[in-house]
Amino acid sequence: MRRAPWAVAALYALAVLVTVFSVYPFVYALSTSFKTGTALFDPTLWPSAPSLDNYVSLFTVAEQPFGRHILNSIMVSVIVVSLSIFLGVTAAYALGRIDFKGRGLLLGAILAVSMFPAVAVLAGMYELIRFLGLYNHALGLVLPYMIFTLPFTVWVLTTFMEQLPKELEEAAIMDGCGPARIIWDVFMPLLWPALVSTGLLAFIGAWNEFLFALTFVLDNNERTVPVSISLISGASKYDIPWGKIMAASVIVTLPLIGMVLVFQRKIVSGLTAGAVKG
Length: 278
Fold this sequence. Notes:
The chain has a domain at 77-226 and 265-271: MetI-like (MetI-like fold), CATH 1.10.3720.10. α1 (5-33) crosses α12, α3 (66-97) crosses α9 and α6 packs antiparallel against α9 (192-208). The protein is built from 13 helices and no strands. The two termini are 25 Å apart. The longest helix is centred in the N-terminal third of the chain and has 32 residues, at 66-97. The chain has helices at residues 5-33, 53-58, 66-97, 103-113, 122-131, 142-163, 166-174, 179-187, 192-208, 211-216, 225-230, 242-262, 264-271. By secondary structure, it is mainly α. The chain is globular.
């Protein structure tokens, strides 16, 4: 059915409005990151004399080792994604391919864990982190981050795993393959869309997490990027270095934008797994 011209025009206008509404905050942050001094109060969007001083100062101030904080965030996020995918794939194989009593209840319980707000488990997780000796260490953030990355990973991978043809598994069993070889040699090549989408969302969640990072890490050298940005300050409490804050925000946002643009097709196919059956 062909749409009326006014309907097509309205659809494109809405798409442009949503795009501008979504992109403008980042464009504003990028513009402000190149402004210094009184130029911060200039109403023009793009500065007349762009400067890299805000970016340079982020990596030259010894009191706030921003480069070290970026490395901490990368380390924690990569470990969280790796563990989430490994545990998610193995759990998804059991939940998606093996029929056992209580399977639906277990899957629902895994999903229910992600419904709890972070503050609800903050006190208990604090005691656990202290007991394990992980307090004040960046690596100690891996455990609490798994609380909100693993349930989503297991749920999406289980849905995707259920769609894989049973004939592939049966043929592998006939060839003498065990469960481990079936997962890594047969199913893994077919799970890439789901792995990319869940891995990227887990990375974004771990990269942006603030509450646990603020509570469990007090050592300045062990902090992650979100806490680092929140602690950027000027000479006084009234002197807020907006240009420096925006520069830090741009730096930590660009990798996420690049990853989404590179893997956008696999992300869409992974997130729509299970939308159509038959």
